[in-house]
Amino acid sequence: MGSFKYPMKFCSTCSAPVTVKVPLGDNRPRAVCDACGAIHYDNPKVVVGCLVVAGSSVLLCRRGIDPRSGFWTLPAGYLEKGETTEQGAVRETWEEARARVDIDSLYTIFDLPYISQIYMFYRARLRDGRFSAGEETVEARVFVERDIPWGELAFPVVDRTLEHYFRDRRNNEFPIRSESIKKRPIRRQP
Ligand code: ZN
Predict the structure, then answer these.
(1) Which of 6, 48, 155, 182 is such that its CA lies 20 to 30 A from the CA of 120?
(2) How far is CA 60 from CA 53, 57, 70, 108, in A?
(3) For residue 14, how far is its CA from the centre of ligand 1 (angstroms)?
(4) Which residue, among 151, 162, 159, 152, has the nearest Cα to 62 in the 3D structure?
(5) Distance 79 CA to ligand 1 centre (A)
């Protein structure tokens, strides 16, 4: 906990400088405004996305932006305020892969405490067979299991979700898979 940095230097309410300290009644450091007393909590972010299935294939996007530009990922991104996680997953799938999908169910949940993120992937079906590269994607493609570019996947959560899926598919049962991801070294560029 103590190792996390507080990027905020000024209060977003009144623009006065903030000080990092443990507020009264709290148990960890927060950015507290010296002038108005506002406490600025900095909590984990939620990333939502879809494992889009089209027949025996799954939809992957090759990233056109950093981090991990050039690597393949599942369409996913930060949940926005006012959205449900399901709505966010559908929206991100449209933005990154221009794919309209129907959600089946929540499938994988990952804790990534080292970067304070939570990932949630839904299983979804491609509605009309159409998809293309969205703004932050250079290429959208469907892959059968034997063609998955395992060495060129962008993030461990993508590896794990695909591994779970192809294993669970043999039994046609898809229970929610929940796990924590430990940090691991960045792979080479493809
Ligand atoms: Zn303030």
Answers:
(1) 6
(2) 10, 10, 12, 16
(3) 4
(4) 152
(5) 27
Measured in angstroms, how far is the CA atom of residue 81 from the centroid of ligand 1?
Answer: 23
Find the angle CA(74)-CA(155)-CA(82) to the nearest 5 degrees: 55
| Residue 20 alpha carbon to ligand 1 centre in Å | 13
18 CA distance to ligand 1 centroid (A)? 7
Q: What is the pLDDT of residues 33-91, one digit of tens each?
A: 999 999 999 999 999 999 999 999 999 999 999 999 999 999 999 999 999 999 999 99
Ligand 1 centroid–CA 35 distance in Å is 5
The separation between CA 82 and the C-alpha centre of its own chain, rounded to angstroms, equals 17
At 83, list the tokens.
């959205």
Nearest to 131 by CA among 65, 77, 53: 53
Q: What is the pTM of this model?
A: 0.89
Per-residue pLDDT of 86-131, as tens digits, reads 999 999 999 999 999 999 999 999 999 999 999 999 999 999 999 9
Helix or strand (DSSP H, E) at 24: none
